[in-house]
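Deliverable D4.2, example record:
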Amino acid sequence: MLPMHISPERLEDAYRVAPEIILCATGIFVMLLDPFLRAAWKRALGWFSLAGAVGALASLYLVWQHPGVAYGGLIRADEFSIFVHAIVLVVAILATLGSIQYLENERIQRGEFYALLLFATAGMGVLGSAGELITAFLGLEMSSISSYILAGFRRTSLKSNEASLKYFILGSFATAFFLYGIAMVYGATGTTIMTGIQQSLGNSPPSSLLALGLAMMFVGLGFKVVAAPFQIYGPDVYEGAPTPVTAVLASGPKAATFALMLRIFYTGFGAAGHLWFWAIWISAVLSMCIGNFAAVTQTNVKRMLAYSSIAHAGYILVAFAASTEVGIAAVLFYLAAYALMKLGAFLVVAHVGGPGERRLEIKDFAGLGTQQPALAACFSLFLLSLLGLPATGGFLGKFYAFQAALDAHIVWLVVIAAINSIVGSYYYLRVIVAMYFWEPQKEFQPIPVTPAIATALVLAAAGIIYLGIFPSRVMHYALLSALSLR
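Output generated by the structure prediction step:
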């Protein structure tokens, strides 16, 4: 036999996609191993998947050591992709920790759950590093198809089945918009590589076909980040999906898709900012207003947090509209803080909800401060960070976002965002008041917090406090990531 020889170029390419290789390999191994394990041993697949996600996070060192483009420009390994990978991999790690006991309680402990979570995370990683539109489409589909299945993982629940079907149907329409947009951009520029689109715009003004293609891509991506007016599916899907899956949907895919939007709008269409500025402006206002005012009327905590996710998409778009390196860095910092606080909040809801997710009303959280003070403290921290209380990551996320918009002289957008932040404080504080000032529900006994869930919540809380008190290092790397987009 001839000795196998791998060229240095191919080895470099492999280093640049090391996280995806590890995630997919782990997911495939979990699915192959699952049928051979007895039910009592399937829990071990969760820990094995956790090890794979941690290994993928560690492999970012290889990406950092071998920057550049891979596979002819399809993948870009730079500070920006490393930052986004770090966010989605931390989400995968914490979500896996929070899912092990949940699946046990719901009697749906299966290896395919962890495999799908790993495949979805790999797709998010591709979104964060895609340097070409078809590659971005493949990453989007890889993440989305896995998410459609995960949303319906509670197969005996009608709400979960409805969430999965609704997510699949509307997600397919959004995917079609995105794909048609890519086709139109290719027809107008002759390329799908983002740097090639940038060069094409530098040589000639944008055509109407190019503008239409950009608009259709914005529709497709706006659906994925749950931004208005494309948010209609969000609350139903978030409420019906298993709560750990909702935690992932509200954090990881949103961060990865916003990262893709940054690459498309700033790298590919940076010279055509006049085409997309007002679309971003209007979407930001609609997202903040619809999300916050709808959340005020909710009594279901899970649904309230779903509307809150829409509002936060609007806050992120405020920084997006600034169209500067500082604005990009503010988006990245906000995404890091948002992923931790939203993931932590949904994991608390998953725990308190209990088997069958029967305890999701605000009244079900009454007295949690006396029954389980540590859990209530963590939930309070996540809610106060979502509100934007000083000394939390959420406060500095909003501060950097609003400051970037003010520096770009987008004053009215910041005024609307500030008013919406005040409105949002009502429904966050209402849950905290219930936990500490209402009498506990006598018919429900508190559920003990397992070490896995406790670890996930402590790590998320520590990350939020770190970003709120020591933000300089993360913000500095976010600025380097923003500069690498140009």
